[in-house]
Design a protein that fits this description.
Keywords: ATP-binding, Ligase, Magnesium, Metal-binding, Nucleotide-binding, Tricarboxylic acid cycle. The chain has about 375 residues and is an alpha+beta fold. It is about 40% helix and about 25% strand. Strands 7, 8, 9, 10, 11 and 12 form a six-stranded antiparallel β-sheet that branches. A four-stranded antiparallel β-sheet has the order 1-6-2-3, with helices on one face.
């Protein structure tokens, strides 16, 4: 589960990591009041569990309480990446000199958490890796050993290349970030950027924490929101016990098995497309389950094509086809559907799909290429 920015920052602050002064606002009047309390200027930041909020127009600088009120009205009225806005984090504006990246992610290969630091912050770590690969320092922390001082020091020295006098303070922040990871059962967390301000302070301007879903029983304060996501399609999927995570592409995807679902999304990226979601209907999926999943995928306004990739064993291809057919008969199939179907009862399934005007292929690569082509035409 991805925490909202204000929740992530509260977690950082609980371990002594400095964050900007901020006030949570749930309506335009609260936003105006918050800006007044912060001295008349502020940054309004939508609180949704999604990145790239600034690129979507979800982060705004305002110079008066009245401006904050009007901007907040506009932000609360909009939908970003499929999420309605129910709160804004109103923060003090911060003038920065330089920005740093610090983060950690569970690494199953090393059976620990790999921490990353770079003196280049304020952009996605993938972009940093592409543009400045030599700047990245990686160190793995063993869960039973914890963050050792020499590991934190190595990460801090790399992060502090542009601000060498801050290496000790950055080292303390990295050690505290490990404490946050442990307490919150984080599978991923980052401070991006950790900024040096003009008055010499280090401050976490933005933060992201993802909590292990399997550990939510230990974090009741977040569990309620997990089951009442701001995204209505994710809510509906949880009610129907379907693994569905919305993304920001336009190719809806469905597969029977989490590994196949992720491989399908990788193929979509490989051939130049962007998946609109992750969806795993699981093994032994019934026709009703397939229909329910497809209905959720189709309700995403960004989806311009649906790609169904099934390698059928326990799941019958016949059931997959019957699920698609039921959605077609309800009149809900308004966009193209591309199907890769192989395995148990594939011939029967293909005949049913052909009867409703959908041709299925046995080649995953062929199906993905075609889906990407259709999405580009849309």
């Amino acid at each position: 589960m991805r925490l909202l920015e204000y929740e992530s920052k509260e977690a950082l602050a609980s371990k002594g990591i400095p964050i900007p002064k901020g006030i949570l606002a749930r309506d335009p009047e609260e936003a105006a009041s918050a800006v007044e309390k912060l001295g008349g200027r502020g940054v309004l930041k939508i609180q949704i569990p999604h990145g790239q909020r600034g690129k979507a127009g979800g982060i705004k600088l305002v110079n008066s309480p009245n401006e904050a009120r009007e901007v907040a009205k506009e932000l609360f009225s909009r939908t970003f990446y499929g999420y309605e806005v129910s709160s804004l984090l109103v923060e003090e504006p911060v003038d920065t000199v330089t920005e740093i990246y610090i983060g950690g992610i569970i690494d199953r290969n090393s059976r620990g958490m790999t921490f990353i630091s770079t003196p280049y912050g304020g952009m996605d770590v993938e972009e940093i890796a592409a543009s400045h690969p030599e700047s990245i320092e990686k160190r793995t922390v063993h869960p039973l050993m914890g963050m050792r001082s020499h590991i934190a020091r190595a990460l801090a020295k790399n992060a502090a290349k542009n601000v060498p006098d801050k290496v000790n303070e950055i080292q303390r922040i990295i050690s505290s970030l490990w404490d946050v990871a442990v307490e919150y059962d984080a599978v991923m967390l980052e401070i991006n950027p950790l900024a040096l301000t003009k008055d010499g302070r280090l401050i976490a301007l933005d933060a992201r924490i993802e909590v292990d879903d399997n550990a939510l029983f230990r974090h009741m304060e977040f569990e309620k929101r997990y089951y009442s996501s701001e995204n209505p399609r994710e809510n509906e999927a949880r009610k129907r016990d379907i693994a569905y995570v919305e993304l920001d592409g336009n190719i809806g995807t469905m597969a029977n098995g989490a590994g196949l679902a992720m491989a399908t999304m990788d193929l979509v990226h490989t051939f130049g497309g962007k998946p609109a979601n992750f969806c795993d209907v699981g093994g032994g999926a019934s026709a009703d389950r397939v229909a329910n999943a497809l209905e959720i995928i189709l309700s995403n306004p960004r989806a311009s094509v649906v790609l169904i990739n099934t390698l059928c064993g326990i799941t019958s291809a016949l059931d997959v086809a019957l699920g698609v057919k039921s959605i077609k008969e309800k009149g809900l199939l308004k966009i193209p559907v591309v199907v890769r179907m192989s395995g148990n009862q594939a011939d029967e399934g293909k005949r049913i799909l052909e009867g409703i005007g959908i041709k299925a292929t046995e080649s995953a690569e062929e199906a993905v290429r075609y889906a990407v082509e259709l999405a580009k035409r849309a």
